[in-house]
């Protein structure tokens, strides 16, 4: 009996090791000690595709790394204290760099209210990544995503290393919420509820396309309430946390899903599609250079950007409102780097 159990354990370990040997990916989390950073790092520790986890923060990363390193999966976890050479070491050779570093909202604040603090944090972390590992896929979680992603693009352009295929604003939480909220309304399994959400990541820039969901019949006040809940889902959490921050656990899951999808695509899996805020041709003719839509991922990052598809008159109006705000948010990010370039 004992030897059978041991054999089973060894077999599981062997499988985990061979899967990882084929996909030896390092992932770095910048802002790893925060509300999102900690559970996100834990989820990444559970991924058989991740062989090395680099955790960087201005405070507490070695402690978080020591803690997570005891989880009995085989990946190596290293914590980095704040110093330029440590940051460079943390991101070096990473396939993916996730940035949840930055302050979260308090009740009464918009995501744009975070700009003054988070813009320079993201600029500097992006600049360090552009210098030490420009080919990494850069996943931006820090808000306001509609502006922080253009900030990263500008930083990479200044260093002559910009590749639009490797820069992603993480909007996965919007589809996670949409799927859950619609399943609550219809009493269905959320796993079967796929809702396309396009645009950006704040308020009216978040545009759920319910006409393309399993429930195009949702209409009138019920539709308005559902759309509003998806657009302002973040506020529900900010209000409930009452000054202690914004979504962290659901966001960790969403960030992990996006990173894992990129690793699956890197490992050769076909047909991996995630919604994400990228440098997109869809509305460039209207002066909007970044837009979230379904994106097929490949080994190099963005493989194919899907259009918004067939939408109804109501959704066309939502997109018009979205584009107005989005344009301003993007311009704000671009202007910030022009006036405050990285040193
Ligand atoms: N994209 C999304 O859907 C989404 C969802 C939720 C939250 N967010 C955003 O994510 C960000 C983080 O949220 P949180 O709840 O984890 O906040 P938090 O305050 O709990 O954690 C932020 C962490 O960043 C660290 N940090 C600050 N400056 C840093 C720097 N220069 N280098 C490295 N680390 C640094 C802090 O020390 C802290 O540990 C916020 O801006 C929030 O608005 C985005
Ligand atoms: O709402 C926030 O400020 C955090 C995040 O963008 C969210 O959507 O939960």
How many extended strands?
A: 11
Tally of helical segments: 11
Task: Give the bound compounds.
Answer: nicotinamide-adenine-dinucleotide, (2S)-2-hydroxybutanedioic acid
Helix content: 40-55%
Give helix and strand order, one letter per element, not per position: HEHEHEHEHEHEHEEHHHEEEH
What's the overall geometry?
Answer: globular
Rounded average pLDDT:
94
Q: Label the structural class.
A: alpha/beta
Quaternary state of the chains: single chain
Largest sheet: 6 strands, parallel
- CA distance, first residue to last residue: 64 Å
**Proportion of residues in β-strands:** 15-25%
Low-confidence stretches: 1-20
GO molecular function: L-malate dehydrogenase (NAD+) activity
Active site: 201 (proton acceptor)
Protein name: Malate dehydrogenase
EC number: 1.1.1.37
